[in-house]
Design a protein that fits this description.
CATH superfamily: LigB-like
Number of domains: 1
CATH class: Alpha Beta
Strand content: 15-25%
Number of helices: 10
Largest sheet: 9 strands, mixed
Low-confidence stretches: none
Mean pLDDT: 97
Structural class: alpha/beta
CATH architecture: 3-Layer(aba) Sandwich
Radius of gyration: 17 Å
Distance between the termini: 45 Å
Number of strands: 12
Shape: globular
CATH topology: Protocatechuate 4,5-dioxygenase, Chain B
Order of helices and strands: EHEHEEEEHEHHHEHEEHHEHE
Helix content: 25-40%
């Protein structure tokens, strides 16, 4: 019998009706005006779709040419609810969304299980939204693929990068880092802070991304370490906040989308 990780935030962060969800995703992707090569990795936000969906779509649209070509997607997002040391992979067989079930790549666990920072734990995944909200986008743009779900807790950038290195693979493997940017500043302050964080991402400076800059700072820092090693070229695709999309401007949350392309 399959062990399923059921959605925790369907109907809250995004529609639980498959038709409405697919329609929303299609609308966001149609509105994207970003072009470029299909990236090895992206950073995308993880708030409710009405707030961050348009920003996330600018990264996911670059995956559209990879439909039918990608076999494995490694998704790393921060642990919001469960204290965690290192990185936790789920033992579930599939992750379900309103669009269907995604098989978990258990072979990937064999590549990282000997690392002291890696563990097989389900509790960090049960209510965690940072990975879940990325999955419908991936289903829409890629179709079938196997998922490596990693919730990231207290870890150093080098520890995250080491896990990514083990899973790096070739053209069949892509990475998604799930992170929002600054939280609950006024609109102009958030814009200033998020520009600075985006510049650090674009210049591969993990040491300049701090606690208050991004909730997913640890997986982001890990990606920047890995990007240095593999000479990936970062690109800022979109940078907005909830005051630009669907919220007031007195307290906003920042959202950025970034692509990391392999050098030609």
């Amino acid at each position: 019998m399959l062990k399923v990780r059921w959605p925790a935030v369907a109907g809250l962060f995004y529609p639980d009706n498959p038709k409405k969800l697919r329609g929303m995703l299609e609308e966001y992707l149609r509105a994207v005006r970003v072009a470029g090569a299909a990236p090895k990795a992206i950073i995308a936000p993880h708030a409710g779709y009405i707030f961050s969906g348009p920003v996330a779509a600018s990264a996911y649209a670059l995956f559209l040419p990879l439909r039918g070509l990608v076999e494995r997607v490694v998704v790393l997002g921060p642990s919001h609810r469960v204290p965690l040391r290192g990185l936790a992979m789920s033992s579930a067989d599939t992750f379900a969304t309103p669009l269907g079930q995604i098989p978990v790549d258990h072979e990937a666990w064999s590549l990282i299980e000997d690392l002291p920072q890696a563990s097989l734990l389900d509790r960090p995944h049960t209510q965690e939204h940072s990975l879940e909200v990325q999955l419908p986008f991936l289903q829409e743009v890629l179709g079938d693929f196997r998922l490596v779900p990693l919730v990231v807790g207290d870890a150093g950038p080098a520890e995250v990068a080491e896990v990514m290195e083990r899973l790096w693979g070739g053209p069949e493997t892509r990475f998604v880092i799930s992170s929002d940017l600054s939280h609950y500043h006024d609109y102009l302050t958030a814009k200033r802070l998020d520009r600075s964080t985006s510049q650090a991402i674009a210049e591969l400076r993990p040491q300049d991304i701090h606690f208050e800059d991004a909730c997913g700072r640890i997986p982001v820092q890990g990606l920047l370490e890995a990007a240095r090693r593999h000479a990936l070229v970062p690109r800022i695709l979109d940078l907005r906040n909830s005051g630009d999309t669907a919220g007031p401007r007195d307290q906003v949350v920042g959202y950025g989308a970034y692509a990391f392309e392999e050098a030609a």
